[in-house]
Design a protein that fits this description.
By secondary structure, the protein is an all-alpha fold. The protein has a domain at 37-90. The chain is 69% helix and 0% strand. 5% of the residues are buried. The model is unreliable at 1-19 (pLDDT under 50).
Length: 95
């Protein structure tokens, strides 16, 4: 099983694909805004959970470098998605 399969699995629970719409700035309604905020909170929770799992694996001495590397890739993908949603939800105001 490759690393993209794991990342896609996480994204299926949130119905998005990696780097979806990075170049697009979609029009958002209040419903979309609330939905994206919920997604953002879920992604942050998942990011913290994976970080905790990585630290626990390292601390217990059960170092499985392949599993840790896979988890770090998933964590980075989630971080990219968090940044994407933050950019959509926070308007870019040029003074």
């Amino acid at each position: 099983m490759d690393d993209t399969t794991d990342i896609t699995y996480i994204n299926k629970t949130r119905e998005i694909t990696p780097r979806e719409g990075i170049d697009e700035a979609p029009d958002t309604t209040e419903h979309d805004h609330a939905e994206m905020t919920d997604m953002l909170l879920g992604l942050k929770t998942e990011h913290r959970r994976i970080d905790t799992e990585i630290k626990a694996l390292i601390e217990t001495g059960a170092i499985d470098m392949i599993n840790i590397r896979r988890m770090k890739k998933i964590k980075l993908s989630i971080k990219d998605q968090i940044t994407y949603f933050k950019n959509i939800l926070t308007p870019d105001i040029i003074a």
